């Protein structure tokens, strides 16, 4: 089997490596990272072989995942530009860095997959948007790409023009959800509930509500209406959320996230 290499062992690189271990033998995986302590830690936890340089990692793998932050891409690309060939499948997970921008450095005949995973991948619940030109990849390679990304959650293929929207929808949004959970739990603690219990109630309500959207197929507004009884407690709370700009705050956050992604291009 063609080997999968990971450059970078931050949260996303590590999550993808852990997911891959569910489907692939560790002998078919390899990684590199600039932090020697992190390299040793990941090796001890997974048994996956590590390489002493990014170039060596690229040279030893066909599928190469660039799992570093956007500001480190110039240095990493410089490391591997003379190693990557037309045979490689290069997978980029950095926001704002387009396929064309990568090809400007690596070569316009290089085959690039652009993806935007999110941190729930760490527990196998990730959601990833993936963009690539299928005409450049064999059926076997496309199946391999699907396996890599579904090893830690779900994926959907999207046009590259929507990748900034994917960052808004699922890449950055877990942070907003955690803020929502924390803030609502604070309010519940104010009502007298112990904090750890408040986190359990709130987090499970969020998880269950998300599953209702996915499994029922009903519009979120319809599901909201089902909770809001006439003259009840929930509609009073919804009115307060509207008064204090709940929806507008989320839309403004989305605008800010989108604008930042576009500026990175």
Automatic annotation (TrEMBL):
Give the residues the record marks as binding NADPH: 54
Question: What positions does the domain Pyrroline-5-carboxylate reductase catalytic N-terminal occupy?
Answer: 3-95
Annotated positions binding NADP(+) = 7-12, 32, 67-70
> Domain of life here?
Bacteria
Q: Which GO terms describe its molecular function?
A: pyrroline-5-carboxylate reductase activity
Q: What is its EC number?
A: 1.5.1.2
Subcellular localization, as worded in the UniProt entry: Cytoplasm
Pathway membership: Amino-acid biosynthesis; L-proline biosynthesis; L-proline from L-glutamate 5-semialdehyde: step 1/1
- Residues in Pyrroline-5-carboxylate reductase dimerisation domain copies: 160-264
UniProt GO cellular component terms: cytoplasm
What keywords are annotated for this sequence in UniProt? Answer: Amino-acid biosynthesis, Cytoplasm, NADP, Oxidoreductase, Proline biosynthesis
The Gene Ontology biological process terms listed for this entry are:
L-proline biosynthetic process
* Cited HAMAP family: P5C_reductase
Q: What does this protein do?
A: Catalyzes the reduction of 1-pyrroline-5-carboxylate (PCA) to L-proline.
Q: What is this protein called?
A: Pyrroline-5-carboxylate reductase
């Amino acid at each position: 089997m063609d080997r999968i290499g990971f450059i970078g062992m931050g949260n996303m690189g590590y999550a993808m490596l852990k997911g891959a271990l569910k489907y692939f033998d560790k002998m078919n995986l390899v990684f590199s990272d600039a932090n020697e302590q992190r390299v040793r830690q990941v090796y001890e936890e997974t048994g996956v072989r590590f390489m002493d340089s990014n170039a060596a990692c690229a040279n030893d793998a066909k599928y190469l995942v660039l799992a570093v932050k956007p500001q480190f891409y110039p240095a990493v690309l410089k490391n591997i530009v003379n190693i990557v060939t037309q045979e490689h499948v290069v997978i980029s997970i950095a926001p704002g860095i387009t396929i064309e921008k990568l090809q400007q450095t690596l070569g316009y005949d290089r085959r690039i997959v652009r993806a935007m995973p999110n941190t729930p991948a760490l527990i196998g619940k990730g959601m990833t948007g993936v963009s690539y030109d299928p005409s450049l990849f064999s059926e076997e390679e496309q199946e391999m790409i699907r396996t890599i990304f579904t090893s830690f959650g779900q994926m959907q293929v999207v046009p590259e023009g929507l990748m900034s929207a994917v960052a808004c929808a699922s890449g950055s949004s877990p942070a907003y959800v955690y803020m929502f959970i924390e803030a609502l739990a604070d309010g519940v603690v104010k009502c007298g509930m112990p904090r750890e219990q408040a986190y359990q109630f709130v987090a499970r309500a969020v998880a269950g509500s998300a599953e209702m959207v996915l499994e029922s197929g009903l519009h979120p507004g319809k599901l909201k209406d089902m909770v809001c009884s006439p003259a009840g407690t929930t509609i009073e709370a919804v009115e307060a959320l509207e008064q204090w700009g709940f929806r507008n705050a989320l839309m403004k956050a989305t605008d800010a996230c989108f604008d930042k992604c576009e500026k990175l291009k």
